UniProtKB/TrEMBL annotation:
<dbReference type="GO" id="GO:0030244">
    <property type="term" value="P:cellulose biosynthetic process"/>
</dbReference>
<feature type="transmembrane region" description="Helical">
    <location>
        <begin position="846"/>
        <end position="867"/>
    </location>
</feature>
<keyword id="KW-0135">Cellulose biosynthesis</keyword>
<dbReference type="InterPro" id="IPR013083">
    <property type="entry name" value="Znf_RING/FYVE/PHD"/>
</dbReference>
<keyword id="KW-0472">Membrane</keyword>
<feature type="binding site">
    <location>
        <position position="547"/>
    </location>
    <ligand>
        <name>Mn(2+)</name>
    </ligand>
</feature>
<comment type="similarity">
    <text>Belongs to the glycosyltransferase 2 family. Plant cellulose synthase subfamily.</text>
</comment>
<dbReference type="InterPro" id="IPR005150">
    <property type="entry name" value="Cellulose_synth"/>
</dbReference>
<feature type="binding site">
    <location>
        <position position="351"/>
    </location>
    <ligand>
        <name>UDP-alpha-D-glucose</name>
    </ligand>
</feature>
<feature type="transmembrane region" description="Helical">
    <location>
        <begin position="1030"/>
        <end position="1050"/>
    </location>
</feature>
<feature type="domain" description="Cellulose synthase RING-type zinc finger">
    <location>
        <begin position="40"/>
        <end position="104"/>
    </location>
</feature>
<feature type="region of interest" description="Disordered">
    <location>
        <begin position="223"/>
        <end position="245"/>
    </location>
</feature>
<feature type="transmembrane region" description="Helical">
    <location>
        <begin position="287"/>
        <end position="306"/>
    </location>
</feature>
<dbReference type="InterPro" id="IPR029044">
    <property type="entry name" value="Nucleotide-diphossugar_trans"/>
</dbReference>
<feature type="compositionally biased region" description="Basic and acidic residues">
    <location>
        <begin position="223"/>
        <end position="243"/>
    </location>
</feature>
<protein>
    <recommendedName>
        <fullName>Cellulose synthase</fullName>
        <ecNumber>2.4.1.12</ecNumber>
    </recommendedName>
</protein>
<dbReference type="GO" id="GO:0016760">
    <property type="term" value="F:cellulose synthase (UDP-forming) activity"/>
</dbReference>
């Protein structure tokens, strides 16, 4: 068609005579031929009909090639500043019009020049039309780039987006195309039309809905306007927003991070000179104290190195929710976002109030995510009928609460937190009925609270015959240690509708089977049961786990995680996305460092620049295949001319290529789920030797016997394992799925399988979170740390001193258990996939409780020195004192620069330093003792906490609540002996005169260092009325007295009188 159209142009041009009237006729023929060849005056950009100008002729914008375009498109290009023809790239006239307008201008030019258009000019016009249609994107003639280039903002080592689409459900709508393929597409006339139409519609959508996102390269050029040679092309269309990455790394400014690194290196150098001086200058009369202090200081230095160097590469991250919506939620189409299962775990409703769990579930059901993609599973590991009935009430209230949240876009979506906020709730609300609806919903929630409280009050009195359900049957979980598995679907996609008739997310109650004689592995076993139940019922490729007191504070939290997990470049290597923990109900001063901002805002950011943050137990979105024990997809090794030795040393070697192993009876291949995704999904019943269409390594795992040994004997669950992108068999009925779900939560299902060993949450420690994350990182996966501006999740923290110490005790005990297990990072996981700095971070997480031993001794040394008159440091010169001063200055400089790049306040940093000492000499010490007794001797000791009463009616009344625990004795004893030492030292100096004050200052400094760090503990011990419990005073004074008598002489404050030696001169001397 185009060649015939070209023939019309050339024929009409060459048939003209010598006068301009004949040329005008030929020009009219050109316009008419164009109109006929392009569909009766249809705009080739937007497809609309070209309007008729005032002279009765079709509107013509370009006088060079007469490309059919409507006036609206011309005005659109003019507003953008381009104003150029989409075909020949010539600028439009300022006053475009019909052909007669151009005809009159041609006549004026002709009369001035006194000639006519030559054949050469007609040939140029024809050639430009032919070349423009057939060779779109040639750099020698046009500025239009051949390929739309993308800048990798995630990881420079990542491979580019591949052209093949893996799966229609896991869609990659904008594949990378080569130059040759692009040239072939440019040969078609319709290609240009489709591309321009698509580009124009996308740009109008972006200009109307989304903010403009522009990136600048190193030379300051606009990223969207760079052609294939790196040059600026002002006439090229802006890069499609949906093609760009869903997230990017944001490196810290060099002005902040470089001084921080320089101070770390300087501190290492100073430490070297400091220890050189300490080792070469012993204290003759206090050799034991000197050697003890040296050992403690060396341990502190090693502990600092383990904690400091994983923070060498801190980064921030940004997510782009608008691009996620453009890529996976196109208008008028079904959402392609991945389904997500959400796990909530609870045990004892008396310690974990059902109202708190209900608020967490309500925030999940109201999350800003497609309702058919969300399923909530509540694990009741205590099989309490109270929890079951509370979930039933929650499901009914959710029918009213969820539409209210979504209609008015509320944040947060936990009703208890929302209605208790002390803010202007009318801000940014424009709906006239909002106030009325809010009042009605608040009344509904108060009635809901009354019903929950009535259930709680009823549960305090357990009937002798046990609980009876509404239908008259006994509650199956009356015996919490011997009951069958229970599953109840409260809300489902088939019948769970809200008050407005819209679907609600699925809500499932799960209580796994428990029988005497089985090890149920506490929370880790409950989480693995949820993994199997969800795989049978919904099988989402990703799932989020939350504690029952952690509600969703940011309704877009799941979308934030999907920006990483569904990113086509880096998403396939990400095992989980960890969010920081944030807490409500903490006093402004945060006396016991409950917010833990130093860990979440400094340490975790540093790990994100290495291989990813550690898993902290809640607020984490997992990739299901990673938790099944599979390895990440290996990228091809890039060949380089030189080796970056520093990067290889810090971040670990490149992964080795997997070698094919011959299958034998004793061989057990490593699992890798990254099969060819276009292969048909297999039916496990027909699996014996392998599945056609999968790669060789995956085919080795396709035998049914091998799968049963790893995952257990459940055909439905084993089939779900093969569905990498999620989904359940359509042939299975709901009744069959529920029957199979009951089977996979039976107490004997995990026997002789890899559950808890290589699959799911790993057993062997009370801190199963650290162990589980470590196993995934050791396989080569990486994790992501996501810190949105609005906190994703919020929970409650124990603000009471005793509860806080017991929480820290539990964490430290889990670290000691890992240290004494085969999964210790000191000797496990040396396969070349765990990076060095990541290993140092994990080593630090399991050895930090051992620091309690040297810390306790070091905090005792000031009192010993004051009571004995000896010191751990000899008399130093002015030059030697410079090393001590430099060391203290470098310590302070490191902390100040950390606060500078992380944004942590000085108060939060200081509270963390104080509680490091408080927890170290109490909870960590007891954790080491309990852990060694439990692992080595099999003795399980528990430190109980008993409440002694508190005042009611105070927002922070629990802060002053005293609960007796043996964890309080060691720090109290340290306080007493250091105070006694200060009194003894000052008294001795007063008796001995001026010369004894100089050595005293160093001893007093160390004693005050201990007391200042223990000050929050002392303040919490005194309580609101400054009344210390008698039992604490008795134990502390007793221990301090016994210790003091070992070191203090009979007459410590009297001047010592020296007489003659009776052994030399006798009694009559």
């Amino acid at each position: 068609m185009f060649r015939s159209y070209l023939a019309k142009i050339t024929g009409s041009s060459f048939s003209g005579g010598s006068n301009h009237s004949s040329e005008a006729k030929n020009g009219a023929g050109v316009a008419a031929s164009m109109e006929n060849s392009h569909g009766d005056g249809i705009c080739q950009i937007c497809g609309d009909e070209i309007a008729i100008a005032g002279n009765g002729r079709p509107f013509v914008a370009c006088r060079y090639c007469f490309f059919p375009v409507c006036q609206a498109c011309v005005e659109y290009e003019t507003r953008r500043g381009t104003a150029a023809c989409a075909n020949c790239k010539q600028k439009y006239d300022l006053n475009p019009g019909s052909y007669e307008d151009h005809e009159s201008e041609d006549e004026m030019q002709y009369s001035e020049q006194g000639g006519k258009l030559t054949d050469q000019k007609n040939e140029q016009i024809a050639e430009s039309m032919l070349h423009g249609q057939m060779s779109y994107g040639r750099a020698d003639d046009h500025d239009m780039p051949r390929t739309l280039q993308t800048i990798e903002l995630q990881d420079p080592n990542d491979a580019p987006i591949r052209s093949e689409v893996a799966n229609p459900k896991n869609i990659h709508p904008f594949p990378y195309s080569s130059t040759d393929a692009y040239r072939e597409d440019a040969t078609s006339v319709n290609t240009w039309k489709e591309r321009v139409e698509n580009w124009k519609s996308k740009q109008e959508k972006l200009n109307g809905r989304l903010p403009e996102a522009r990136y600048v390269n190193e030379e300051g050029k606009n990223f969207a306007d760079l052609d294939e040679n790196g040059g600026r092309d002002e006439e090229s269309p802006m890069m499609d927003e949906a093609r760009q990455p869903l997230s990017r790394k944001v490196s810290l400014p060099s002005s902040r991070i470089n001084p921080y690194r320089m101070v770390i290196i300087l501190r290492l150098v100073i430490l070297g000179f400091f220890f050189r001086y300490r080792l070469l200058n012993p204290v003759p009369h206090a050799y034991g104290l000197w050697l003890t202090s040296i050992i403690c200081e060396i341990w502190f230095a090693l502990s600092w190195i383990l904690d400091q160097f994983p923070k060498w590469f801190p980064i921030d991250r940004e997510t782009y929710l608008d691009r996620l919506a453009l890529r996976y939620e196109k208008e008028g189409e079904i959402s392609m976002l991945a389904p997500v299962d959400i796990f909530v775990s609870t045990v004892d409703p008396m310690k974990e109030p059902p109202l708190v769990t209900a608020n967490t579930v309500l925030s999940i059901l109201a999350v800003d995510y497609p309702v058919d993609k969300v399923s909530c599973y509540v694990s009741d590991d205590g099989s309490a009928m109270l929890t079951f009935e509370a979930m039933s009430e929650t499901a009914e209230f959710a029918r009213k609460w969820v539409p209210f949240c979504k209609n008015f876009n509320l944040e947060p979506r936990a009703p208890e937190v929302y209605f208790s906020q002390k803010i202007d709730y009318l801000k940014d609300k424009v709906q006239p009925n909002f106030v009325k609806e809010r009042r009605a919903m608040k009344r509904e929630y108060e009635e809901f609270k009354v019903r929950i409280n009535a259930l709680v009050g009823k549960a305090h009195k357990i009937p002798a015959e046990g609980w009876i359900m509404k239908d008259g049957t006994p509650w199956p979980g009356n015996n919490t240690k011997d009951h069958p598995g229970m599953i109840q679907v409260f809300l489902g996609h088939s019948g769970g509708l809200d008050t407005e008739g819209n679907e609600l997310p699925r809500l499932v109650y799960v209580s796994r089977e428990k029988r005497p004689g089985f090890n149920h592995h506490k929370k880790a076993g409950a989480m693995n049961a949820l993994v199997r139940v969800s795989a049978v019922l919904t099988n989402a490729p990703f799932f989020l786990n939350l504690d029952c007191d952690h509600y969703i504070n940011n309704s877009k939290a799941l979308r934030e995680a999907m920006c990483f997990l569904m990113d086509p470049i880096v998403g396939r290597k990400v095992c989980y996305v960890q969010f920081p923990q944030r807490f409500d109900g903490i006093d402004a001063h945060d006396r016991y460092a409950n917010r833990n901002t130093v860990f979440f805002d400094i340490n975790m950011k540093g790990l994100d620049g290495v291989q990813g943050p550690v898993y902290v137990g809640t607020g984490c979105v997992f990739r299901r295949q990673a938790l099944y024990g599979y390895e990440p997809p290996l990228k091809p090794k890039k060949q380089s001319m030189a080796c970056d030795c520093l990067t290889a040393l810090l971040c670990g070697p490149h992964p080795k290529k997997a070698k094919a192993k011959k299958s034998g009876k004793g061989s057990k291949p490593k699992p890798n789920p990254k099969a060819v995704q276009t292969a048909p999904k297999p039916n496990l019943g027909s699996i014996e030797e392998g599945v056609e269409g999968y790669d060789d390594e995956r085919a080795l795992l396709m035998s049914k016997k091998n799968f049963e040994q790893r995952f257990g004997h459940s055909t439905v669950f084993l089939e779900s394992v093969l569905f990498e992108d999620g989904g359940v068999p359509h042939s299975a009925s709901p009744a069959e799925l529920l029957k199979e779900a009951i089977h996979v939560i039976s107490c004997g299902y995990e026997d002789k399988t890899d559950w808890g060993q290589e699959i799911g949450w790993i057993y062997g420690s009370v801190t199963e979170d650290i162990l589980t994350g470590f196993k995934m990182h050791a396989r080569g996966w990486r994790s992501i740390y996501c810190m949105p501006h609005r906190a994703a999740f919020k929970g409650t923290a124990p603000i009471n001193l005793s509860d806080r110490l017991n929480q820290v005790l539990r964490w430290a005990l889990g670290s000691v258990e890992i240290f004494l297990s085969r999964h210790c990072p000191l000797w496990y996981g040396y396969s070349g996939r765990l990076k060095l700095l990541e290993r140092l971070a994990y080593i630090n997480t399991i050895v930090y409780p051992l620091t309690s031993l040297p810390l306790l001794v070091y905090c005792t040394l000031p009192a010993i020195c004051l009571l004995t008159g000896k010191f751990i440091i000899p008399t130093i010169s002015n030059f030697a004192s410079l090393w001590f001063i430099s060391l203290f200055l470098s310590i302070f400089a490191t902390g100040i620069l950390e606060m500078r790049w992380s944004g942590v306040s000085i108060e939060e940093w200081w509270r963390n330093e104080q509680f490091w000492v408080i927890g170290g000499v109490s909870a960590h010490l007891f954790a080491v003792i309990q852990g060694f007794l439990k692992v080595l001797a099999g003795i399980d000791t528990n430190f109980t906490v008993t409440s002694k009463g508190s005042e009611e009616g105070d927002e922070f009344g629990e802060l002053y609540l005293f609960k007796w625990t043996s964890l309080l004795i060691p720090p109290t004893t340290l306080l007493v002996i250091n105070m006694v030492g200060i009194v003894a030292g000052i008294s001795d100096a007063l008796n001995n005169g001026y010369s004894s004050w100089g050595p005293l200052f160093g001893k007093l400094f160390f004693a005050f260092w201990v007391i200042v760090h223990l000050y929050p503990f002392m303040k919490g011990l005194m309580g609101r009325q400054n009344r210390t419990p008698t039992i604490v005073v008795v134990w502390s004074v007793l221990l301090a007295s016994i210790f003091s008598l070992l070191w203090v002489k009979i007459d410590p404050f009297l001047v010592r009188v020296t007489g003659p030696d009776t052994k030399l001169c006798g009694i009559n001397c």
